[in-house]
Specification:
Order of helices and strands: HHHHHHH
Shape: rod-shaped
Radius of gyration: 29 Å
Structural class: mainly alpha
Helix content: over 70%
Number of strands: 0
Largest sheet: none
Number of domains: 1
Strand content: under 5%
């Protein structure tokens, strides 16, 4: 039966170790596949949304188009900034001319805070379940090492009970030890590679969000200045 036979005939402790490692491996691969699918779609939508933002430059039209961008965090950043922009625009309309400059400065600061808070929210959303990969990469080899130590203990115990140190006595315990070691590495290696890859892609999207927040804030600042200048001319 080979490896399957060794697993079936393994001691209960070794089976428990293998079940734990199997859980870590399955959970890690589930997270990896889900995140890779998400980032592939998010990066594609991010490029499309950036093109839409600079092509239209009309906030109302962009706001309606945001319904088509379910994955990219840039769409949610825009909606949060746009809502705050509308509120500040109404507030400036109701403010006396002598207080408009203060309202304008406070409004820009508020929009900047909203965008910063939204960016942190999106980062937390992208990082959800990712620390589990780091946990798998850090703990699985040690769990496998525990199984290795337990298998070696079983081998030495068999030697002590039978008073012999031939291969037939020590081979089962050593085989169990090697299986848990291999399973620990099988669970850990993909998790470590995926964790590094995913954190790199999160950093890339975070940079895109920072750049977009700067661009959006600049456009909003120009629009508010333009509105303020038009009101000054009309008065």
């Amino acid at each position: 039966m080979g490896i399957i036979g060794m697993i079936v005939n393994a001691s209960p402790m070794i089976k428990l170790v293998l079940i734990i490692l199997l859980f870590f491996s399955i959970a890690s691969w589930s997270i990896i596949l889900q995140k890779l699918k998400y980032f592939r779609k998010a990066e594609m939508e991010t490029r499309q949304f950036y093109d839409l933002f600079w092509d239209k430059r009309q906030f109302a039209a962009i706001s309606e188009a945001c319904n088509s961008f379910k994955t990219t965090p840039l769409a949610r950043l825009f909606l949060e900034g746009y809502r705050e922009f509308q509120f500040i625009e109404r507030e400036m309309d109701d403010t006396q001319d002598s207080q408009k400059r203060s309202a304008f400065t406070d409004g820009i600061d508020n929009i900047e805070r909203v965008l910063r808070r939204s960016t942190l929210t999106e980062i937390n959303r992208m990082e959800k379940a990712v620390p589990f990969l780091a946990t798998t990469g850090n703990t699985s080899p040690f769990i496998g090492l525990f199984g290795t130590v337990w298998g070696l203990m079983s081998s030495f115990r068999s030697i002590g009970l039978k008073g012999a140190a031939n291969l037939a006595v020590v081979a089962p315990g050593i085989s169990e030890a090697l299986i848990t070691t291999a399973m620990g590495l099988v669970a850990a290696i993909p998790a470590v590679i995926a964790y590094n890859h995913i954190t790199t892609r999160i950093s890339r999207i975070t940079s895109e969000m920072d750049n977009f927040s700067t661009d959006l804030l600049g456009v909003i600042e120009k629009l508010l200045k333009k509105d303020k200048a038009n009101e000054t001319k009309n008065t």
